[in-house]
Amino acid sequence: MSAHKAKKQFGQNFLVDQSIIADIVSCIRPQAADNMVEIGPGLGALTRPLLKQLNHLHVVEIDRDIIARLHNDYPQEHEKTKLIIHAGDALEFDFATLDTPLRIVGNLPYNISTPLLFHFTRFSARITDMHFMLQNEVVERMVAEHSTPAYGRLSVMLQYRFVMEKLLDVPPESFKPAPKVDSAIVRMIPLPAEQILVRNEKLFAAIVSMAFGQRRKTLRNTLRQILQEADFAALEINAQLRAENLSVADFIRVANYCDLHGKTTAGNL
Ligand code: SAM
Question: Whole-angstrom Cα distance, residue 102 to residue 216?
């Protein structure tokens, strides 16, 4: 087959640095019997070393040219095939169709990384862990602590459901073509259901969006539709603070308080 030409619209930056690839695989620590799915196998930089250690591996790939290559390299009708190819958009893939407990890995297309992370969230009860390559700036936001510049909606919306850890920095030269940004590997482990303390996830998401919608404004201002002075007092939260000063636990308290007090009917909730 002729050489594959990387496609920008699919965020194709292929890993070529063998020592980084080995480091990523050792972060993932694949075990033979794992139910693992790789998002965007591309030219197989991670797929091949993972397959060496796994009994089987699912992949979800959108690019028809790459799918044709995968079918060529791993004929699906072959009895002993270890690679199960799912052609299509990972954003629409129903991960509930795969066996549990599921492990998800991937060097994600950066242009859709945030919607993908939220898509995976829907299946978190079925997932043991996830390891992703992402833009470093996104990983910094995911793991940021409150009252730091990187802390925002993404930090809160993921931290209430996942324990997350940045594992590895990956420089642009590790890819071909080299992306314009630094990258990093992050591990995400879903919290068990009993540790997810949010009573009403829709309301929680709406409050977090409202608070960070205008992040330079005070909470008195951004949350005025749902919290009055007496509510701030009852919550023991200073209304002069900004969203970035509230911890994830604070946001949970605010949302649960609003849920308990029926404060769910404001226009944009
Ligand atoms: N895993 C390979 C590597 O590390 O070299 C390729 C990584 S490349 C950054 C992203 C891969 O995701 C590409 O193979 C691309 O075609 C695929 N991709 C892009 N958008 C996708 C989508 N919506 N669903 C599934 N795969 C997608």
Answer: 40
CATH code for the domain in which residue 79 is found? 3.40.50.150
* Residue among 7, 86, 107, 180 to mutate when testing ligand 1 (max atoms within 8 A of CB): 107
Q: Give me the pLDDT at residue 113, please.
A: 94
Looking at residue 264, its pLDDT comes to 78
Query: Is the distance from the beta carbon of residue 87 to the nearest atom of ligand 1 less than 6 Å?
Result: no
| Lateral strand order in the sheet of 183-190 | 83-87, 57-61, 35-39, 102-107, 127-135, 183-190, 162-170
Pocket of ligand 1 contains residue 41 by CB under 6 Å: yes
Q: Quick one: pLDDT at residue 268?
A: 46
Residue 221 and residue 105 share a domain: no
Which residue segment(s) compose the domain that 119 sits in? 8-195
Low-confidence ranges of the chain (pLDDT < 70): 265-269
Distance CA 227, CA 222 (A): 9
Alpha helices in 108-190 (DSSP H): 113-121, 136-143, 153-159
Please tell me if the CB atom of residue 60 comes closer than 6 angstroms to any atom of ligand 1: yes
User: Which residue(s) pair with 60 in the sheet?
Assistant: 39, 86
**CATH code at 256?**
1.10.8.100
> Which residue has the CA at smallest separation from atom 23 of ligand 1?
89
Q: Please give the pLDDT value at position 2.
A: 84
